[in-house]
Amino acid sequence: MSKYDIGLVGLAVMGQNLVLNMERNGYSVAVYNRTTERMREFVAERAQGKQILGCATLKDLVGALERPRRVMLMVQAGAPVDAVIAELKPLLAPGDLIIDGGNSFYQDTERRAVALAEDRINYIGTGVSGGEEGALWGPAIMPGGQPEAYRLVEPILTAIAAKAEGEPCVAYMGPRGAGHYVKMVHNGIEYGDMQLIAEAYDVMARGLGIPAAELAEVFGQWNQGELQSYLIEITSEILARVDEETGKPLVNVILDEAKQKGTGKWTSQDALDLGAPTHTINAAVESRIISAYKDERVAASQVLTGPTIKFSGDRGQMIEDVRDALYAAKICSYAQGMGLLRAASAEYDYDLDMGAIARIWRGGCIIRARFLNDIAAAFDHNPKLTNLMLDPFFRDEILARQGALRRVITTAVSMGIPVHAFASSLAYFDAYRTKRLPANLTQGQRDYFGAHTYRRVDKEGSFHTEWTE
Known about the structure:
Blueprint: E1 6-9, H1 13-24, E2 29-32, H2 36-44, E3 52-55, H3 58-63, E4 70-73, H4 79-88, E5 97-100, H5 106-118, E6 122-129, H6 131-137, E7 140-145, H7 147-160, E8 163-164, E9 167-168, H8 178-207, H9 212-222, H10 230-240, H11 250-253, H12 263-274, H13 279-291, H14 294-300, H15 315-347, H16 354-360, H17 372-381, H18 392-415, H19 420-432, H20 439-450
Parallel strand pairs: 1-2, 1-4, 2-3, 4-5, 5-6
Antiparallel strand pairs: 6-7, 8-9
Helix pairs in contact: 1-6, 8-12, 8-13, 8-15, 9-10, 12-13, 13-19, 15-18, 15-19, 16-17
């Protein structure tokens, strides 16, 4: 054939699967990998007989593409992306397009977009969620950059994206780093979801003494209702798996040390910069951090005692409470994530469409869930919705379940089981619904030691008190 539709750089599993996804949907792809041997293996094995061209150099790859050239990068975030861009730039012409499909920090994408625009090279930073399987069969895709740049790649991204109720799970997010920002917040919400599920598991496993096999059935049942989601589904499957070596539930053999790649931390950090409350996401990040202190925790468990874990209530009712608590906390978590997106949209001039974001998260991505339909409907009904909890549907849902959330937290605390994300979700709910918080005392303290002044409830202006003679 003559020229290829798109080029892709970086043939780890995600990159390979995206290439196969593109080719299966009718697009020819030229590929390059820094390690030539990996490229040759891919072309000879998984790509054999397909419209996929292996290229030994970036120059060969660029030369094989139709104009305007479209080159997608699937390389490690950070310096490797800058290195590939530096190699590509001399080979490209004005009007060509670079697409970064990795988990890049949105501020890096902002910087790259501005720099490449000076050379009239288009740049798209796009979040791709769904893991290896999603990349192959249909991920959720969150592109940001110049609108005209997105149009150059829109047909390809639409073709390879997951479909939810017949709609492709891809939409233009906004300028510059908007796509990677939305993906970052997606990952922050993912952290919150995973921690809430882990705490629900812990309360039932340690607190109620329910074995893994039975818990697999519980989560399987939950996946048929309002909690239906990819993460609940895989939780059931994980709990059902038996370790071949020991015969024990595999989950009991896995070391309790959760790793992180940084996107959840980025979400918390940017939320702090913007002054947006993200209690549940922060709790999830902190929970992963303390899980890494395994040796210290083991040593501390020998000298720091707590209450005896013994549940004496109605086990069936507590399981129902955990389910309702999980759903209530999940609403709080998503309210925080959408609130952060709203704050970022205003601060960074992204003009994000909350309804569109919720719709593309319905399929392909890790946080895909039934209730994202309800979130999309909430923002479609009121695009200026300030907080998800104020939508009539979600208001009624969380008010009906707050009692269960309080009971689960109280029970866990009485047994010494940490429920950081559950408790943080409730604290967020209670703080948001409280007309008068104790911040008045905090501001009085700030004025006392630092003359920071304060506002009054009965008159306008800024005031300072001489607290000492």
